[in-house]
Write a structure and sequence with these properties.
390 residues; six-stranded parallel sheet; 14 helices
């Protein structure tokens, strides 16, 4: 399975763990970073990105992040138990995904990578449907048109081109909607992303490119892939870019809302860089201790997006222990449903591989289907003949 691109071709680095100095380069809180909620849970204001949420909405964001993290953790466990072939965890990126996902409208269209489990949650995609592909029983598991949420894309960066093209079509149709395309810091090195930026800018497409900069393209840190912050690349293509604290769900929500409105109003594309951190492995096949320091991990653990929002809720008296207990119980129930659902997923029949290859059919696929059917039937015939011999 393809994974995030790296400057060294994807192989884990053998140069040792990152140093204290290298880790310091990736700290948030630098000038230009939009932040509305500090790591300590203190509310701050920003001149360009204001947001006013009700207590119910704030509690809803907390619930979204807790439910998403619980589901993600259950998926990791299922993979370790052999129930899934692979899993790409979002641990640490809940605020980036929930904040941006909740900024969309139902008529907006979302193009994810393969790690946007939180965004899928906000688009009402059943979490169980996300696991079918990773179990190997389907090619996606949901109808993209039901929730305007495209199937997961494993090929790195290609979804940005799909999004740009779709947004160009939206503009031609005169629709009052926008397109949101997700990609990672590693994908920003791909030519597809550069081409998507070019087409979106030239055609003034209503698309928001949302980069979750979790700072590691497998074993390759961001500073090995870019000489400037990723959001600054937008200027070279002629559209605005902004960097937001990706562990601050309020800031991500405010910035993404503004970016989507910018696109909807005919002002063209915008790039949002959510500066966050991948707390877990790239995928369940990865061992991040080979290239990351424990010091760096601990530093970012102190900026946990869920703990940050909970601190704010507690300080403002917007939630009590009964609320947290209910959310924990609800998340446990979700994990149980997912666990039981994965283990009882039916396996596809061997002929299913030919389904949905082409929308209108193909004579070549029909021929191959017939040949494979004959091949399978030959085993039944051989079995019957062997039985007669006894």
């Amino acid at each position: 399975m393809s994974v995030k691109s790296t400057a060294d071709g994807g192989a884990p680095a053998k140069r040792g763990r990152t140093t204290r100095a290298a880790a310091a380069k990736r700290r948030s809180g630098e000038p230009g970073l939009v932040q509305l909620l500090t790591p300590q849970g203190e509310r701050v204001e920003h001149d360009d990105y204001a947001i006013d949420l009700t207590p119910e909405e704030l509690r809803g964001l907390y619930r979204d992040m807790v439910m998403t993290r619980r589901f993600d953790g259950e998926a990791i466990t299922l993979q370790r138990q052999g129930e899934l072939g692979l899993w790409a965890s979002l641990l640490g990126q809940e605020a980036a995904q929930i904040g941006s996902g909740r900024a969309t409208r139902p008529d907006d269209y979302v193009f994810p990578t393969y790690r946007e489990h939180g965004v899928a949650w906000t688009r009402d995609v059943d979490p169980l449907n996300l696991l079918g592909m990773f179990r190997g029983v389907n090619n996606g598991g949901w109808d993209p048109n039901e929730n305007n949420f495209h199937l997961y894309t494993i090929v790195i960066g290609s979804q940005t081109l799909h999004a740009a093209g779709y947004a160009m079509g939206v503009a031609k149709d005169g629709a009052d909607s926008a397109v949101l395309a997700y990609f990672g810091d590693g994908a920003s090195s791909q030519g597809d992303v550069a081409e998507a930026f070019t087409f979106a800018a030239v055609y003034n497409a209503p698309v928001v490119f949302f980069c979750q900069n979790n700072q590691w393209a497998i074993s390759e840190p961001t500073e090995k892939q870019s000489r400037v912050p990723i959001y600054q690349r937008a200027a070279g293509y002629g559209f605005p870019g902004v960097r937001v604290d990706g562990n601050d769900v309020l800031a991500v929500l405010a910035v993404t809302r503004a970016a989507l409105e910018h696109a909807r109003s005919g002002q063209g594309p915008m790039l949002v860089e959510a500066f966050t951190y991948r707390m877990g492995a790239h995928t369940t096949t990865d061992d991040p201790t080979r290239y990351r320091s424990e010091e760096e991990h601990e530093e970012w653990a102190s900026k946990d997006p869920i703990a940050r929002l909970r601190a704010y809720l507690d300080h403002e008296g917007l939630a009590d222990e009964d609320f947290y207990t209910r959310i924990d119980a609800e998340s446990d129930a979700l994990a149980k449903r997912v666990r039981e659902g994965v283990r009882t997923m039916p396996n596809p029949g061997p002929m299913a591989i030919f389904d949905n290859v082409y929308a209108d059919g193909s004579s070549l696929v029909d021929e191959e289907r017939a040949q494979f059917a004959d091949y399978l039937a030959s085993f039944e015939e051989d079995g019957a003949t062997a039985g007669q011999g006894h």
